[in-house]
């Protein structure tokens, strides 16, 4: 998510610093940005000069203080773990020297709780981007209990400036998008579990019947089965058993079949493309 956010912000004429804990992660991120941009060039969406100008606006570092020194906005995209996000927020705030807005890219965790560790929580907010960031048009702006009006206005203006559509919601478990999306996804997995239909049949039903660009099973593979499981556990704790994770999902995660990133989830993946159905689901169409 981090490299995608950096890309769309840089394409909107912003100077960007991407920070990660190891140089190899930064290299992988820049390679992904270059690949996305080249795809845009190949499809005639952007020019070669626009591609190079975007890359020129992106710097990388492993030094947090260097990354945030002149920032108007810092967006964290660390794993969906409340402790990691809180510690990251504290590190960011300690490194800041100005009135910088800090945002979390969390897809479901409480922004109010994440920002509660800050000395200036009124300058923090949630900016929930969707994957792939350079394609998806929506950004969910999540207003914590502590967020002030100035920060909300800043966030909405920024999202519009980078060519995305902001939807502003009050902080609650799963917000609006994840809560609805996960509800659809978990029911789709339960249908697999009980033999109602195979992965492709379920996905095509939503793609053709409801005009979804991607079915809920394939989306779960792309998001990551481990990520979806963690979100469901959190929503079950906050909202009740209607979000109880299916046993099939738990088994997949235990087996290390996490979706596209591992080459197998509910589907089989090669070079980023879906090539078949996971072996334990081959009976389904």
TrEMBL record:
<dbReference type="InterPro" id="IPR006108">
    <property type="entry name" value="3HC_DH_C"/>
</dbReference>
<feature type="domain" description="3-hydroxyacyl-CoA dehydrogenase C-terminal">
    <location>
        <begin position="174"/>
        <end position="268"/>
    </location>
</feature>
<dbReference type="InterPro" id="IPR036291">
    <property type="entry name" value="NAD(P)-bd_dom_sf"/>
</dbReference>
<protein>
    <submittedName>
        <fullName>3-hydroxyacyl-CoA dehydrogenase</fullName>
    </submittedName>
</protein>
<feature type="site" description="Important for catalytic activity">
    <location>
        <position position="128"/>
    </location>
</feature>
<dbReference type="GO" id="GO:0016616">
    <property type="term" value="F:oxidoreductase activity, acting on the CH-OH group of donors, NAD or NADP as acceptor"/>
</dbReference>
<keyword id="KW-0560">Oxidoreductase</keyword>
<dbReference type="InterPro" id="IPR022694">
    <property type="entry name" value="3-OHacyl-CoA_DH"/>
</dbReference>
<dbReference type="GO" id="GO:0070403">
    <property type="term" value="F:NAD+ binding"/>
</dbReference>
<keyword id="KW-0614">Plasmid</keyword>
<feature type="domain" description="3-hydroxyacyl-CoA dehydrogenase NAD binding">
    <location>
        <begin position="1"/>
        <end position="171"/>
    </location>
</feature>
<dbReference type="Pfam" id="PF00725">
    <property type="entry name" value="3HCDH"/>
</dbReference>
<dbReference type="InterPro" id="IPR006176">
    <property type="entry name" value="3-OHacyl-CoA_DH_NAD-bd"/>
</dbReference>
<dbReference type="InterPro" id="IPR013328">
    <property type="entry name" value="6PGD_dom2"/>
</dbReference>
<dbReference type="GO" id="GO:0006631">
    <property type="term" value="P:fatty acid metabolic process"/>
</dbReference>
<dbReference type="Pfam" id="PF02737">
    <property type="entry name" value="3HCDH_N"/>
</dbReference>
<dbReference type="InterPro" id="IPR008927">
    <property type="entry name" value="6-PGluconate_DH-like_C_sf"/>
</dbReference>
């Amino acid at each position: 998510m981090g490299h995608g956010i950096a890309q769309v912000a840089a394409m909107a004429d912003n100077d960007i610093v991407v920070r990660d804990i190891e140089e190899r992660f930064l290299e992988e991120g820049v390679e992904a940005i270059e690949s996305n941009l080249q795809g845009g060039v190949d499809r005639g969406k952007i020019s070669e000069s626009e591609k190079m100008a975007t890359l020129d606006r992106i710097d990388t570092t492993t030094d947090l203080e260097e990354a945030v020194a002149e920032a108007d906005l810092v967006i964290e995209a660390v794993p969906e773990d409340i402790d990691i996000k809180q510690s990251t927020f504290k590190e960011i705030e300690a490194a800041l020297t100005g009135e910088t807005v800090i945002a979390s890219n969390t897809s479901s965790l409480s922004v109010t709780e994440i920002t509660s560790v800050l000395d200036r929580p009124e300058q923090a907010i949630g900016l929930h981007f969707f994957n792939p960031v350079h394609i998806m048009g929506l950004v969910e702006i999540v207003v914590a209990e502590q967020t002030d009006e100035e920060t909300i206005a800043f966030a909405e203006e920024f999202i519009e400036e980078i060519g995305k559509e902001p939807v502003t919601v009050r902080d609650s478990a799963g917000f609006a998008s994840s809560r609805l999306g996960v509800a659809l996804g978990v029911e789709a997995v339960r249908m697999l579990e009980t033999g109602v239909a195979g992965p492709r049949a379920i996905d095509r039903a939503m793609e053709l019947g409801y005009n979804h660009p991607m079915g809920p099973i394939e989306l779960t593979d792309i998001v990551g089965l481990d990520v979806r499981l963690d979100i469901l556990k959190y929503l079950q704790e906050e909202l009740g058993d209607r979000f109880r994770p299916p046993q099939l999902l738990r088994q997949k995660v235990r087996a290390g079949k996490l979706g596209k990133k591992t080459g197998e989830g509910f589907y089989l993946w090669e070079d980023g493309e879906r090539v078949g159905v996971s072996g334990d689901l081959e009976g389904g169409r």
